[in-house]
Amino acid sequence: FKRIVLASRPKGEVVPENFRLEDVPVPALKDGEILIRNHYLSLDPYMRMRMEDVKSYAAPQPIGETMIGGTVGEVIESKNPKFTVGDKVQGMLGWSEMGVSDGVMLRKLDTTHIPLSAYLGAVGMPGMTAWYGLTQIMQPKEGETIVVSAASGAVGSVVGQLAKLRGCRAVGIAGGKEKCDYVVNELGFDACIDYKAGNLPADLAKATPNGIDAVFENVGGEGFDACLARMNPFGRIALCGLIAGYDGQPMPINNVRAFLTMRLTMRGFIVSEHMELWPQGLRELGTLVAAGRLKFRESIADGLASAPDAFIGLLKGRNFGKQLVKLA
Ligand code: NDP
């Protein structure tokens, strides 16, 4: 089967040559192991950070080894009593058409009411990220205004919809008219600002007439700065991502003074460090998706070989919704 390894670390922007496609033999299973055919690979912005050898919350991706990544697939052979052939499972089997697991981090999935791929999106790590930042850090009350950047994406789309369900005014920031129209018309946000249109501060002011009570920050840069200037007293900021700076772009913040004058709180978080809350969050997200009350959209690249280009596209905003690679 085929897998993709990290060939070299990026200098600035990621390029296809940072990856290498390899053929590897199917390994013989040891007792306790499970062989899985991956149906979908999740591509996520955090992978960009792992490609670098710098101090971070996790160890860097080793060169020459299978690129890290979340997967969903099907058990095709099992020497583990907890898993049988045909089980649908979610794991971290990487950029690979197949994978072997010892079962410890493998989760069995029920696809009766939830499509398999959603377990990599709204009912998986990205959905959980939205849920954590919203419920644990932003804690918005009914009637408050929240803003989320990368609003049409895997995480952002869930943040706004959960906020609406809690009675908030939800405002998104996204790149381009098509994404903004989707965020308002399909996802039900109250407004969405196209940062590429060039009037970000003025458009944000119009969309947040009562100021901003809480921000879910995915991007950094000018959108974040514009939000700071609109914050209400004791506003909360969940710092989830800074994708506009992942290739090393500088990100000056001009409105630092708002932290003082508005007594703001900002907290960064890594969703995988809060596993104790995942069952609760995933239950809420799964119920909403199964009932059709939480919508999501996917960009699906075809075949493992397309993963590097799709990943580079994700870092440039070419995806529209959760970026996946279809493998089987
Ligand atoms: P998305 O589906 O939102 O895709 C990324 C989006 O980011 C793009 O579609 C694009 O949207 C936007 N983007 C890309 N480059 C830029 C840029 N230079 N400037 C502005 N916007 C840009 O990805 P996810 O939902 O998976 O991730 C969203 C954020 O959440 C990321 O920052 C990620 O690192 C973070 N994250 C953090 C976690 C945590 O535990 N802290 C866990 C999971 C995700 P547009 O076209 O609208 O600009």
UniProtKB/TrEMBL annotation:
Signal peptide: none annotated. GO terms for molecular function: oxidoreductase activity, acting on the CH-CH group of donors, NAD or NADP as acceptor. Residues 14-325 form the Enoyl reductase (ER) domain. Keywords: Oxidoreductase. CDD domains: PGDH. SUPFAM superfamilies: GroES-like, NAD(P)-binding Rossmann-fold domains. The keyword Transcription does not apply. Gene3D superfamilies: Medium-chain alcohol dehydrogenases, catalytic domain, NAD(P)-binding Rossmann-like Domain. InterPro entries: ADH-like_C, ADH_N_2, ER, GroES-like_sf, MDR_fam, NAD(P)-bd_dom_sf. The keyword Oxidoreductase applies. SMART domains: PKS_ER. This is 2-alkenal reductase. It comes from Noviherbaspirillum autotrophicum.
